Structure formats: C-alpha cells, structure tokens
Amino acid sequence: MEEETLTARPVRDSQSEMAEIVLPNDANPLGALLGGRLMHWIDLAGAMAAHRHSRNYVVTASVDHMDFVVPVRVGDLVILRSSVNRVFNTSMEVGVKVHVENYIADTSQHVSSAYLTFVAIDGAGHHLKVAPVIPETQDEQRRYDDAGRRREIRRAELERRRRGKR
Question: What whole-number distance in Å separates Cα of residue 45 and Cα of residue 63?
C-alpha cells in the first residue's frame, strides 16, 4: 500500500454537508418525513465523509441508536453535516448531525444525530487500512475521545451477543 494512502488527515478533510428538500414522496400521510428516508439520507451523508477521508469504497458496518427529536414536514429543508470522528485500522466512526430549516419562518432545529461505522474496502470487498484522523479543535478531540468509548461499548455488546447473553 502506498505511504501517501496512510498519511493522517485532519477531520476537516472529511467534513461534508448535504441538503434535501422534503417532498410529498418523502412523507407519510400526515405530511411528516418518513424515518426510513431520513435514515437513508444519514447513511449517504456518513458515507460521503468516510469516502472523503479514506479515499476508498466504504460500506456501512453499523449505526448506533437514533432518535427523531422534532418532526420534519413537507417543504422543509433538511441539512445533514458529517465528519469522521475516529479511525480504527480499517473502520471509521462518522458522526452525522441533522437539522431542519424552515426557510419561510427562518428557523432551524436539531432533528437527529447518529454515529455510523464504515469499513473501507477495495473493489473485491477486502478490508483496507485507513489513514488516522487528526482532531484539531476541542470539539473534534471530544468527539474523537467519545468515539473510543463508544467502540468499547459496541465491542462489549457484540461479545455478549456472541455468548448468548442478551
């Protein structure tokens, strides 16, 4: 593998932003955004950050707990911001934060946040090592540290499941 591929990169290199307008096809009969559609957008936004950081194909390995804090309505603008929080050899934790903007009322509200784990792969599906991420701000360092704690929780839960202790 080329040395350049493994050169550490700052979080800012992975930062991505995606915007979607909620259309009637994205909503339930009450005019609220379908949770599954939002989860799809979160997965796409997370993948963009993972692609930008790893510079490789990535696949979603897991999604942590997700809450929908406020409803999103037809006509609203959904903003999804994502960045790599931490790298673990071949996997990356990506944070995605979602806001809804009502451009008529000039308001913005937090809708949801999610942590996704992506694995870098080559065209044949083999795992690839990922360059480390460099947190540069206090907030990025906090997210980096928190990602390590979340990884330990995920690993402990997987081990419990493997042993049949749910």
Answer: 13
